[in-house]
């Protein structure tokens, strides 16, 4: 049973370019969460999605960031016109039913470096 | 608002000695509490969770945690530490009285177990 898959594992972008991060949840999971880990900090919630729906994006920066989880295919976190401050590790997690007692299982992360 | 504090940035122990990683929380209702471990350049691995019931929770790799409501704590423990336990440990809380899918993480505690 494959775990949460994320790709790419490492992504290097120049300032002003777009970064696209992908997340495939565990089999049977339909709830996806994105978190960001800045250097020397814990993880911060960004967005929670179900298939074709954004449930909560309260942790997403208002500009340049967007997320989707289409009916078919992986969830995508998109960062437009990246800046150096976007350099971080971005983790995706998935859960089975999204309830409060449900465990979120994390992927290996995508480490974004903005030059 | 929910929050978690991990008062120690680092914990150093000798192999074979007991290991304790501290965590305190703040939520408006009864908390759901989680521990995760992160190895270098890897994602977070779930260790254990407290939802309700017995205050002592047993998890993966010989770890356990004790929920203490009066002290609002959820310390992670292992009776006999191994060198392979050296990693970054995160405590997380979810408040079921609010948006109960969002995890709030502590800043993490780096554990070093010396041979």
Short description:
The complex is a heterodimer of chains A (115) and B (115). Chain A has 115 residues and is mainly beta. Chain A contains no helices and eleven strands.
Please provide a written account of the structure:
The complex is a heterodimer of chains A (115) and B (115). Chain A has strands spanning 5-7, 10-13, 19-24, 31-37, 43-50, 53-56, 65-68, 75-79, 88-95, 105-106, 110-114. Chain A has 115 residues and is mostly beta strands. The radius of gyration of chain A is 13 Å and the shape is globular. In chain A, 35% of the residues are buried. The mean pLDDT of chain A is 93. With 115 residues, chain B is mainly β. In chain B, strands 2, 5, 6, 10, 11 and 12 form a 6-stranded mixed sheet that branches. A 4-stranded antiparallel sheet of chain B has the order 3-9-8-7, with no helix packed on it. Chain B is globular. The model of chain B has no long low-confidence stretch (mean pLDDT 92). Chain A binds chain B through residues 4, 6, 31, 33, 35, 40-45, 48, 55-56, 59, 91, 93, 95, 98-109, 111, and chain B through 32, 34, 36, 41-46, 49, 51, 90, 94, 96, 99-108.
């Amino acid at each position: 049973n494959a775990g949460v898959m994320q790709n790419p594992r490492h992504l290097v972008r120049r300032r002003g370019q777009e970064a696209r991060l992908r997340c495939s949840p565990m089999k049977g999971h339909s709830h996806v969460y994105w978190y960001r880990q800045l250097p020397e900090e814990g993880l911060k919630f960004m967005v929670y999605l179900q298939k074709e729906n954004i449930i909560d994006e309260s942790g997403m920066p208002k500009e340049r960031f967007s997320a989707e989880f289409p009916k078919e295919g992986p969830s995508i976190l998109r960062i437009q016109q990246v800046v150096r401050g976007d350099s971080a590790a971005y983790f995706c997690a998935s859960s089975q039913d999204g309830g409060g007692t449900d465990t979120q299982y994390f992927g290996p992360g995508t480490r974004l470096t903005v030059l | 608002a929910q929050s978690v504090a991990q008062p120690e940035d680092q914990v150093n122990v000798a192999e074979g000695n007991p290991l304790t990683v501290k965590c305190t929380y703040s939520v408006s209702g009864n908390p759901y509490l989680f521990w995760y471990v992160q190895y270098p350049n890897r994602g977070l691995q779930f260790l254990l969770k407290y939802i309700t019931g017995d205050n002592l929770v047993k998890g993966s790799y010989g770890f356990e945690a004790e929920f203490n409501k009066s002290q609002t704590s959820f310390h992670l423990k292992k009776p006999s530490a191994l060198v392979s336990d050296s990693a970054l440990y995160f405590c997380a809380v979810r408040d079921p009285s609010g948006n109960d899918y969002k995890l709030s993480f502590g800043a993490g505690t780096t554990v070093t177990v010396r041979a």
